[in-house]
Structure formats: C-alpha cells, structure tokens
Amino acid sequence: MKHLLSIDDLTADTATELLDEAERFQQALLGREVKKLPTLRGRTVMTVFYENSTRTRVSFEVAGKWMSADVINVSASGSSVAKGESLRDTALTLRAAGADALIVRHPASGAAQQIARWTNDGGESGVNGPAVVNAGDGMHEHPTQALLDALTLRQRLGSVAGRRVVIVGDILHSRVARSNALLLSMLGAEVVLVAPPTLLPTGVEQWPVTVSHSLDAELPGADAVLMLRVQAERMNGGFFPSTREYSIGYGLNERRAGLLADHTVVLHPGPMLRGMEISSAVADAPRTAVLQQVNNGVHVRMAVLFRLLAGGQEAGL
C-alpha cells in the first residue's frame, strides 16, 4: 500500500491488520513515561491542511512524534498558498523539501489523489515521491476516521461484523459518513443511514446501506449510533426549516437515548454541536465514546504511517 486516499485502497484483511496494529501500538505505549518508539526515526511527515482541524491534525502530529518521525505542519494561511501558490506547486515544493509522507486535508474532493499523482511521477531525480494520506477531501472521504471508528466499535462491542450501525444526520456533506459506510459494511456490519431527504446524496442507493428517515424507528435495534455534525459551511440554501426543527427530527436527546439498548455505543467525529445534533447529557454519558475515538485516532494513524513508511514491519514495536 503506497497511499491511503480512500477506503477502496483497503481490503477487509488490510483494514483488520491496521486495526490490530493500532492496538499493538496502544499496548506498546501503555505505562511508558516517555511515549517514544524508534519506529520512524529519520522520516519526515508533513501535514498539509487547507481546512481547519483539531482532532485529525493533532492526532497525526502526535502519531508521528510518538514514532520519532520529524513532523512539520503546513497550513494554507501560514504558507505561500496565501500568496497565490497553486496546490501543485505547494505539493512539489514539499516533495523537494524531503517529505516522506504528506497528510492532506482540502475542501476539494479528489485533492489528495491529485497530489499523489503530482508527487509520484518520478520527478527530476526519478525517485518516487512521498506517501499521501487523505485526511479529508471535500465531501468525498476520510478513511482514517472510519478506521478509528471501527476500532472504537470493536473495543466497545467486541466485533464489527454482525453489528447494526446507524449513521445519522448530514449524510450529503459528510466524508465521514461515506468512508464509514464503505468500511463498516466491508467489515461485516449492517449500516443504516438516517437523514431528511434533503441531506442524502444523489446515488446513495448504490452505497452498501439501507436508508431511513425515522430516527426513532431505527434506534431500538442499533448496536451503535454515529451522529454527524451539520456542516453549515458547505451549505448554500435551505436544507431544513430551522436548527430547532432539525434537532426535533434528528437530534439525539435523552428521550431518544432511552430507546437504545444498554450496550449501544454512541460515536461522533467532532466537533459536536451540542443542543443541535446531540444533547450535552448524551454527549457526556458513559455510552458515548467520543474521547475514546480521539485516543484511538492517534494509534490508528500510527498504524497507517507505519504501514506506509515502514511496510508494517514488526521491528521497532
């Protein structure tokens, strides 16, 4: 595996191996006063973010540093992008500067894939370019988020296969929803999308999912509920009457949480809009695994970088 741009880059076996590897990293770091492994010493990882991020950017940075890589953060506002530099020129500059891996977030779908093409054409030296990881491209995909969600479900429920996962909210604008639907179904889960018709993408019937418009009807049979943020920054026009109406129809509040089985886990990729798609009481409840997702995100991203840059070798753990 040279890049991780989409869930299509994975097989069920490869995804499971990454989850296993993430747990091995988790165990290897337990009890260490200094959380450092020599795994990627001498490697240079660059995060290239054209959109704001807290969890994804920090977890990739921590993952690289815990494996002794040199991590450099590049943001659009603090780079020559602000002066008008093209995406291609930025990518080629970072390749020339010595990047072994580029972690890319961009508002345009397909941006990470395009960077992988530009930086791996051999270049002037004829040397193949850096590994590229898609950290979220527009409304397309976010594969490492899906992996960390799968790991969280596996830890909470014992397995992903055979579980019923309900994904709720702004499916239309969510790269998280798409990646989770593809990965979780690949791993044997039944995936149900719940959203108003206006927040479902064209062609959703081709996804490996079922679709519902009634949240109350789907909650009692759910093993996991993944709540999505309403992405107002991607909306141009009225997709629902008001935030209050949206919350009434599709928000996870205390009453709705009472419909869930005792074992059901609640996930959210963050940031949470408390009071809209999820109430504070539910967000802070023991069944909600938001902070476990963040912790797992570091180890999943360690596993991904390890696989891409070191070939998944056992040495160094």
UniProtKB/TrEMBL annotation:
Catalytic activity annotation: carbamoyl phosphate + L-aspartate = N-carbamoyl-L-aspartate + phosphate + H(+)
Pathway: Pyrimidine metabolism; UMP biosynthesis via de novo pathway; (S)-dihydroorotate from bicarbonate: step 2/3
Source superkingdom: Bacteria
GO process terms (BP): 'de novo' pyrimidine nucleobase biosynthetic process; 'de novo' UMP biosynthetic process; amino acid metabolic process
Protein residues bound to carbamoyl phosphate: R55, T56, R105, H142, Q145, G270, P271
Residues annotated as domain Aspartate/ornithine carbamoyltransferase carbamoyl-P binding: 2-155
GO MF annotation, one: amino acid binding
Class of the enzyme per the UniProt entry, highest EC level: transferase
Domain Aspartate/ornithine carbamoyltransferase Asp/Orn-binding: 162-306
UniProt KW keywords: Pyrimidine biosynthesis, Transferase
HAMAP family membership: Asp_carb_tr
Family of this protein: Belongs to the aspartate/ornithine carbamoyltransferase superfamily. ATCase family.
This protein's name: Aspartate carbamoyltransferase
UniProt organism field: Speluncibacter jeojiensis
